[in-house]
Amino acid sequence: MRLTFQPRLLGSTATAAGPRRTCSIRPFCRQRLHHHSQQRLTVSRPARPPSIRWQRAYSSSRPCLGPAQPAAAPSPPPPPPQPSKRRRAIVLGSLAVLVGGTVYWATAGSASGSFDDNGQRRLAAGGRGGLNTETFVSFAVVARDRVSPTAFVLTLRLLAEDGVARTATAAAIATAWQHGLWSVEVKQPQLQIARDYTPLPRVVGEHGEHGEHGQHSADGTEIRLFVRVVPGGEVSKYLSRRAVGSTVDVRGPRLSFDVAARMGGDGDSDRQVVVLAGGTGISTALQAAKAVLGRGAAVSILWANRQADDSIGVTATIDAKEANPIVRDIKALQTRYGADRLRVLSFVDAQQTWITEPAVRQAIAGPNGKSSGRSWYWPWGRQETTSSATTQPDTTDPSCVYHSARTLERLDADVFRGSTTTRTCSCGAGSAGKNLVLVSGPDGFIAAWAGAKTWAGGQEQQGPLGGILGHMAARDPETFARWQVLKL
């Protein structure tokens, strides 16, 4: 039999030492005990002294009984770890290098120049405020001529009065015109973005330079830009708000292709240049015309616009005072070199006239190609002769940067990237050269006619010939062997 006890609190009694609590303990078991074995036990416990208050105190290891202690104030959080002196020195040193490099690039870069791909130092005129390829310099808006409701021509003149800066700017512009095709960058200062614009050539007409305006500065520090405001075009929208007397930031020139060197045959009247121009691409067409007309070549321009306002009077007799600046430039070039050597056809979307493959094929045939009579796309007529270019042998060096189609696919200009050093022809003396088809305009226009440009190594390249001209070349390789297509 197992005996257990079950205590029960009975209460407290008063004694001399103080109150005493008592309880009874009864044994119980599974079997019933005899009555005489059941006993009541009384257990007493000394009462706590009235002056001492007891409480259970806890430590980190075990519970214990002890006197109450006053609550301690909460300890403050530990301070954050301080970086080591070595780490602080590394951070401060990195910031100093970053700030110093930024200041040097912004202030000393243009004055000290940079290096081209051949390791030669390329000095920049911008150190004294002249037009250069490193920094943007200010040009003043001296004229603004309307072309159509959405297009205009801005005439810009170097703002700096320093003689060295003006001389350097005039020299840079003259070198660009001598090279052939070129452009400048115009900056939108609020958004810090830039866009390339192709300057219009200086033309002398019956009313002086640029028609009746005749406002070119004598020192050659002016450029003229043909601008069209397009939806989403932040730079064109910015330029549309620049009034006469305001300033525009310009950088350049950026040299493109040397059309005269690619064409070859200096003084050969059989040389031809055909330009397919979309909208403001007429600026490139006029640059090409200026570069080759003086060498005896013939130029045919097929100019496409959405509205007729841009090209009113280009194919008809019109008073120069009523023509817009672009048409005046075309008329002035025709007056100087002859309308038979500079032919311009106008195509307008609103009038449902578009550049077509037959029109391009006829332009490639040229004024001396085999044809008879006049047509709606070639109103000047042609002689029954065959161009002497068909009998010239092809002496193209497969690696020539000027005349090899394969090499051309990897180029974006006839100068080394980031410099003004011109590439050289490797075909040797007596090279026949190439006739040129230039495609200039919006990206979609270029892709439709010649295929899209490509990108490689962060650089835009010509890419393979495609589009309508690519199909034409595939069907008639013998003819196109004498022609080269440039996407501009």
Blueprint (SSEs and pairs):
Layout: E1 4-15, E2 18-28, E3 41-45, E4 54-58, E5 63-67, H1 85-107, H2 109-112, E6 114-115, E7 121-122, E8 137-148, E9 151-158, H3 163-179, E10 182-188, E11 193-197, E12 204-205, E13 208-209, E14 222-228, H4 234-240, E15 247-255, H5 259-263, E16 272-278, H6 282-293, E17 298-305, H7 325-337, E18 342-348, H8 357-365, H9 405-408, E19 435-440, H10 443-450, E20 454-456, E21 459-461, H11 467-475, H12 477-480, E22 483-487
Parallel strand pairs: 16-17, 16-19, 17-18, 19-22
Antiparallel strand pairs: 1-2, 2-3, 4-5, 6-7, 8-9, 8-15, 9-14, 10-11, 10-15, 12-13, 20-21
Protein name: Cytochrome c mitochondrial import factor
Organism: Sporothrix schenckii 1099-18
Biased composition (Pro residues): 73-83
Q: Residue share in helices?
A: 10-25%
Biggest sheet architecture:
6 strands, antiparallel
How many DSSP H or I helices? 12
Class by SSE composition? alpha+beta
Global morphology: globular
Query: How would you state the average pLDDT, rounded?
Result: 76
Radius of gyration, Cα only, in angstroms? 45 Å
Strand content: 25-35%
Ends apart, CA distance between termini: 114 Å
Summarize the structure in short.
This protein has 488 residues and is of the alpha+beta class. Helices cover 24% and strands 27% of the residues.
What does this structure look like?
One of its GO terms (molecular function) is oxidoreductase activity. FAD binds at residues 195, 197, 235-236. The chain is α+β, with helices and mostly antiparallel strands. It folds into 2 domains: 131-253, Translation factors (Elongation Factor Tu (Ef-tu), domain 3), CATH 2.40.30; 259-487, no CATH class. It contains 12 helices and 22 strands. The strands form 7 sheets. A 6-stranded antiparallel sheet has the order 11-10-15-8-9-14, with helices on both faces. Strands 18-17-16-19-22 form a 5-stranded parallel sheet, sandwiched between helices. Helix 10 packs parallel to helix 11 (467-475). The radius of gyration is 45 Å and the shape is globular. Residues 52-66, 106-128, 209-214 and 370-391 have low confidence and may be disordered.
